[in-house]
User: What shape does this take?
Amino acid sequence: MKVFVTGATGFVGSAVAVELQYRGHDVLGLARSERSANVLREAGLEVHLGDIADPESLIPALDQVDAAIHTAFDHDFSRYEENCMADRRLLDALATALEGTNKPLIATSATVVAGGSDPTTEQDGAVEQIPRSASEAFLGHFEGGVQTGVVRLPPTVHGSGDKAFIPALIALARERGVSAYIETGGNRWPAVHRYDAARLFCDAVEQHRAGTRYHAVAEDGIPFRDIAEAIGDGLGVAAESVPADQAEAHFGWLAMFAAIDNPTSSQWTRKTVGWVPREAGLISDIQTAGYLDPPIH
Assistant: This one.
């Protein structure tokens, strides 16, 4: 199988590309620049030049492949809602171009978009009021002959090279001299290692089931206090509670994420595709995967 991967130079997408190659598939990676293209070529990937901001630039790649995996996303949180709608338009354009081909199109969503159960399950639909739910709107294209599917990722996809929420929390703890949690810190974060997430993307494209949601969740819900304490222990600073009305002042843009309570099950995913997470858990990774190394200036 030849698979088109957007975000193939990114944290998750690069792991997906490696896993696809390991399984014997050919990979066509999306590159926005010649610099990114060279990175992909050095990794043994074919290259398609294009930009997720220009959906039409991606369409020609679809004729060259048997399936597509979309992991790219603009993580500029100052334009978060706008970026979510742009992702919706891109996925709609890709799915429309693939209608009648019966080719798989597997995209990325987030566990936080779903509501209704505790823990959230794969059968829980996306809540329209949550911006990232826009990334699941394309699922209905299965009625037009596209094998649509989404892999929902938890708030933290961890591993060496992570540049998202955990590194941001560590940087904040260094700056403030305290590793904080809100109130009791009992709110729960699901988590997955990037390599385990990559394996699920590959399982989803190989075992495609139209209109399906998969949960890339290795740990159902880690109390945020445990995360804060692991960071505090690693940095040698106290882990302390912050009242809810002071959370924004302490955490800044991270406040809404530090408050997330998102227990999420992956039982259906594991049973259906045989996915078994096998990498380190989040707390272990915080301690051993370089998260706590002194910053390089």
Remarks:
- The mean pLDDT is 96.
- Residues 80-98 form the longest helix (19 residues).
- Residues 68 and 105 are 5 Å apart (CA to CA).
- Residues 158-190+220-263+280-288 form a domain with the UDP-galactose 4-epimerase; domain 1 fold (CATH 3.90.25).
